[in-house]
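Recall from the previous chapter that SMILES is a line notation for molecules. Here it describes N~2~-(3-carboxypropanoyl)-L-ornithine.
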Amino acid sequence: MVQFEANFDGLVGPTHNYAGLSYGNVASQSNAQDVSSPRQAAKQGLDKMKALADLGLVQGVLAPQERPDIATLRRLGFTGSDAQVLEKAYREDPVLLAACCSASSMWTANAATVSPSADTADGRIHFTPANLTNKFHRAIEHEVTGRILGRVFADERHFSHHPALPANDYFGDEGAANHTRLCADYGSAGVELFVYGRSAFNASVPAPRRYPARQTLEASRAVARLHGLDENTAIFIQQNPEVIDQGVFHNDVIAVGNQNVLFYHQQAFLDTAAALEEIRRKLPGTELHFIEVPTDEVPLADAVKSYLFNTQIVTPSPGQMAIIAPTECAETPSVKAYLDKLLTLGTPIREVHFMDVKQSMRNGGGPACLRLRVAMTPAEHAATNQACLMNEALFARLHQWVDRHYRDRLSLNDLRDPALLQESRTALDELTHILKLGAVYPFQQ
Ligand SMILES: NCCC[C@H](NC(=O)CCC(=O)O)C(=O)O
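With both inputs in hand, we obtain:
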């Protein structure tokens, strides 16, 4: 069956800020306390969405979360008017307030794991929102994420939605950032690679020592079960714990796949040979391109700094792939040299497009973090909420919406401003009309 892959990018929310909340994510830590520009961040994201739509790809948009998250602050014991809740939280625990104001839902690669209908037992697309238990500011996303996904993909004949896994470290799940699908073409059954950082139940499995492994094997297995993937479809691969300790907090910082291409750093996996052998065995008859980037051409630190592997590999026309890379890749000499060489290697990758997503990069989110991939058939595409699909009109409308509602500068001190809460709610209320989502936010209930 004809199928294609759509990208659903997270629209950056009005409270985008740099709070240094993600231990183990080098960019988040080193840019903590900087002044952000929510307006510029949202526009950089919209420009990327538009660029992909202009390449002829199906591009969708996912709404951000309601932030500041007053409901969570109340649940944690702050009382009074909304303005008092903000002020008390700021005085007592400014880090907690920042966590409840993060625009981190922009990184929709962590919104959910998605398995296309070609792979699942019941022939529907399956979605499991990620519980994101490892970071508090992200663990408060999954409920609204599930609600938004339910409104974008509402038709039960085509789409199946699961709740997030139990919210416990044993089942730490970071969604599609640790999941890649390989296939001959999008419409035929593929293999789904689940990359995990540690095992919760088996202490003999190696684990990082310095930084947390956010994804467990047990979580990956549970998602594969929920989605109805059989043992020929799901492959569980352990990430190299040493790279987690050097800042690779998700697999999509060190590897990316598209159709028959797997692009990865030499140090990405604990046992690369076994992983590649299993992929070959489970995808017989498919011409596979394993593009391994050697450490002596691109040192790990350069890969992390430039986000060479947090690129999107897309297929604008059959057999012709393009890499969507952050501008940091053009600015890092070893990476630029590698990308120039890559285009001469005779792989399906023929073009590189550089995009400026610096506002997101400064929090450790590159082009691939900003998107959730949904491979779909024309019928599934038709059953998707059309108001969430990018085109000239939506692009123009969202640009104006950002201009009207977003601040150009935001510091951590601004997060307690009750006006920011009002501005955000006004903006999001209007957005739910633009995207035809209905009431998805706590303040709308
Ligand atoms: N896939 C990319 C995710 C980046 C995200 N960064 C953050 O949440 C940083 C937020 C801050 O520090 O303000 C994370 O680490 O989960």
